Request: fold
Amino acid sequence: MFLLTLRQFGLRPNCLSSFSILLKLQDLGAERIFAAERNNEKIAVEVKSFLGPSATTQFDAALGQFLKYQLALEDTEPDRLLYLAVPADTYRDFFSLELPRLLIQRYHVRLIVYDPEEEVITQWQQ
Reply:
C-alpha cells in the first residue's frame, strides 16, 4: 500500500542491501520501517500513524525510536538517511507547535508528511 505510493514519488524499494539493518531496527521496536532509494539517495523510512489519544506521548516515543534508529544506521549504513513519516493532520496540528518544532530542528529529524486517506506524500522536509 504505502510502498506503491512511494514509487509514485520516485522511490524504489531497496531490500537486498538493507535487510540486516531493517531486522535490527525492527528488533528495536519499529512500527513500520523500510529501506528505499530516492534520486540515487539511500533512505530508511519509519512510518508512524499517531492514532493514540496523546500526540505528545506518541511523539516522545517516536523521537526516542528515531534517535535509536539513527544511531544504528550511523554504525551499519552511514550513507543511508533516516526519515520519519507522519500523517498530514498530525504534522499540521502538532508538529507546528513550538516544542515539537524545536526538537525536530535540534535533532535534525527529516520528515515525510503523508495523507493516509489518499495514500500520497504531501511534503518532504530535510
